[in-house]
Specification:
It is a single chain. This protein is α+β, with helices and mostly antiparallel strands. The chain is built from 3 helices and 10 strands. A hairpin with a 2-residue loop joins strand 9 (about 150-160) and strand 10.
C-alpha cells in the first residue's frame, strides 16, 4: 500500500482523480476536490440528484455521486454544449430526465476510468452495472447486501457549486506480495 495509507483511502483517492479527469475533459470546466477525505458511517443518496453503482470482482464496493441542482445543471449544460448541442435546446430544470440521465452517463464514464486506474496500478479488476440516477427530495441511506465497513466522502466543486462522491468498500486490504 502507499505510504501506510489504508486501501479505502487510496481507492477513494483514485476515484476522486477519475472524477476530476472525466468531468474536466467532458465539460471543459475546472473541477476542484478537497485533499481531505471524510470517514462516514454509511453512504447516502442526497438531494437534488443522486447516482449510485455497485461494483464487484477482485474487490467490491458501492459508489454514490450526489449533486445539488446548481452543480448538476453546470455539469449537464457544459457536457451537452461540449458535444455540440446549442444551449437553447437544453433542459432548464435539474430534475428533468435529460439532466438525470446525463449524470448517470457521466458516472458510468467515471467508473470506467476509476476501474482502469485501479487495474493499471494493482492488476486487480472489478466490474460494475449500469449506474442509477434519481432526482430526490430527501436523503436515502443505502445498505448493500455485502458487509461494507469502510466508507469515505470526497468533496468537489465546479465554480461555487459543491458536489460529493461517497464510496464504500468491502473489508479488504491491497498488500503487495512481490518486492520490486
Amino acid at each position: 500500500m502507499d505510504n501506510g495509507s489504508s486501501t479505502i483511502d487510496v481507492i477513494a483517492g483514485i476515484f476522486a482523480q477519475a472524477t476530476k479527469k472525466i468531468l474536466e475533459k467532458s465539460t471543459g470546466q475546472k473541477i476542484a476536490y478537497s485533499p481531505t477525505l471524510q470517514i462516514i458511517p454509511k453512504v447516502h443518496l442526497c438531494p437534488d440528484i443522486g447516482c449510485f453503482v455497485q461494483f464487484s470482482g477482485d474487490y467490491g464496493g458501492l459508489v454514490v455521486m450526489n449533486y445539488n441542482s446548481d452543480a448538476a445543471m453546470i455539469i449537464y449544460k457544459n457536457y451537452m454544449m461540449t458535444m455540440g448541442l446549442p444551449e437553447s435546446e437544453l433542459a432548464r430544470e435539474s430534475t428533468s430526465n435529460e439532466v438525470v440521465d446525463t449524470i448517470g452517463e457521466i458516472t458510468n464514464q467515471i467508473m470506467g476510468r476509476a476501474m482502469y486506474m485501479v487495474e493499471n496500478k494493482y492488476q486487480l479488476s472489478s466490474y460494475f452495472g449500469q449506474p442509477k440516477s434519481l432526482a430526490l427530495n430527501s436523503a436515502i441511506t443505502l445498505t448493500p447486501d455485502l458487509d461494507y465497513h469502510n466508507s469515505r466522502r470526497s468533496s468537489f466543486s465546479v465554480g461555487t457549486s459543491k458536489f460529493y462522491m461517497e464510496i464504500s468498500l468491502e473489508q479488504t486490504e491491497f498488500i503487495s506480495s512481490i518486492k520490486k
